[in-house]
Amino acid sequence: MSDRSWLVGIVGGSGSGKTSIAQELIRRLQDEGVNVLLLDMDAYYAPLEVVKHRFEGRAINWDHPHAFDLELMATHLASLRKGQAIRKPIYDFTVSDRVGWEEPIQPSQMVILEGLLIFALPELREQLDVKIFVDTDADIRILRRIQRDTKERGRSVDSVIDQYLDSVRPMHLEFVEPSKRWADLIVPTGVENQKALDMITHYSLGLLQHPAPGR
Question: What kind of fold does domain 6-207 have according to CATH?
Answer without folding.
Answer: Rossmann fold (3.40.50)
